[in-house]
Amino acid sequence: MDYKTVFLLKSPMFFQQVINGLTVGGVYALIALGYTMVYGIRELINFAHGEIYMIGAYLGIIFLGVFTALGLTQYSLTLSLLLTFIFSVFFCSAYGFTIEKLAYKPLRNAPRLSPLISAIGVSIFLQNYVMLTQGATDKVFPHILEVHRLEFFNATMTTLQVFIIITSLLLMGLLHLFVMKTKTGKAMRAVAQDKVMASLLGINIDRIISVTFIIGSGLAAVAGVMVAMYYGLVNYSIGYIVGIKAFAAAVLGGIGSIPGAILGGFVLGIIESLGASFLSSEYKDAYAFVVLIIILLIKPKGLMGKSG
Amino acid sequence: MPFTGVKGALLLFPGLCLTYGVFVMIKRLSVHFRKIRRPEISVNRKAAYVLSIIILLALPLFLKDYYIDVIVLAGIYIILALGLNVVIGFSGLLNLGFAAFYAVGAYSCALLTTRAGLGFWGALPLSVIITSLSGLVLAFPALRLRGDYLAIVTLGFGEIVRLILNNWDSLTKGPNGISGIPVPLILGFKLNTLMHYYYLVLVFVIIAVFVVRRVYYSRTGRAWLAIREDETAAEAMGINNTNFKFLAFTFGAFWAGLAGALFAGKMRFVSPESFSFMESVLIACMVILGGLGSIPGVILGAFILIVLPEMLREFQLYRMLALGAGLVLMMVFRPGGLLKADSLSSSRLFKSFK
Q: Using CB atoms within 10 A of its CB, is residue A178 exposed (0-12), middle (13-18) or buried (19+)?
């Protein structure tokens, strides 16, 4: 790479990478929300959450294929995509609900190590289950989306990126409103604060925990479908690494805090994007870990520190 | 001669310093290794041990090479599981990145033999020392972090090490791995058949079991158990938590380094694929499923998790699936593990993880 090319690449690079970072960050934030909510309620790192996201991505491709076969996509792309999202969310929420009932609920009174290992077990199980049923090769998202590019400040932004960022922000905003304004949201906050007291006040703990898992899984499903659209490829192994990064994002923002997860997600996405382009792209995955380690050693409560 | 020339000197000097440092450390800490009363082993049990050792010695004469190979691998994993047992089982420090130490041991042995021209026996102690030191370094997070967070951070370290192994081509040859690791020699006699290597590994396994058990029934072991049960109380009773946590990680890494070097010598080839997160999970499973803190349990766990998949080779596709489901089922129905530890009841042992 000669001097001139390097110089050329460096100037718009920064803003471009910020855009890319925000896109990826939106995805991380959506998944991080699931982690942070479950941790706030159960003090459990839901290792299986990354796999829910992966399943969401697969379901997105599968349902889109179904609707295309039914002729719906040719009729209206928007409707088809909308239904894909809805069905994916529905099934992933069902997965989340079932996992909670089978693998976490029996361990509610067990010491902390048990649900953690159980979560790892579920994660391994789901990964291999998808590998066995869907094959070990990448699954491709059909090329049916027209991509328009917008140019400003020497950087390109695709409509898909805009879509991802806006959808992420919209969903996060809706979640925030839900948690702050509705009765169930208030109950969720109460359970996160003090489970025993909440149950004494008449809140159905089981129901609230289930709702938390359902919402978290739903958000992860949306993230999954969007990633399938963005990258065009899915594989049974994408859940694990994104799951860890999203958890790092949740910790970065302050585990247990919903605004923290949102902030952490976007910040981590940008850090990773900038690091990959300016430092080294081979160690891209390591940036999340490094950030995680630094945050835990320096400011364990995270950027928006709420006690976990 | 391995240590000639400038390169040799450069290697020899830090090697000597490290060895000296290790000796000093051991001497300072040996006050903790004095005997404390341990349960009397009945005559029947002693006879059972002797009998099983005789069987193990005679085994390779009767089995086909394939089976011996599996058992040798099981032996290496027993050493690994014993090491991790010290960290998780005795001390309660959740380490999900143990494969990183395993990798450091294997790769340092590989590099020392292929690049620095040392023989296997020259490389073995050095790679064990290097791995122990890396255990010391990686113990820093353990001082500050609680259970869940420590698990994730150690997982992160494991992944970072794997990424380094994969990408630092000039040192580790990346995904191609390092091949051509020489065969160990004993007084000029080449240990180049599987049967020879079996006995080598057997000797080390026996040493490992003996040493770990001995440490368990010593003041150091008690200190670790105390830290696991209640850190504040341990500190209040005069146990320096920091030192013992460092010691736990270093001691665990020591065995991982040994296992790694043995693995390198057996396969004569190392590559980053053998040291993934799944590997760490597998070793952690051996400790957890076998019974946290229980030495016979951990040996059984290692043996089962290596031999069973080989026996059920037709179902290899479902191996991981079964492992995942098995973990969940074990946690729900029998969290203490298969063979519970002897000094405390297993459910109490398990509850000590905060």
A: middle
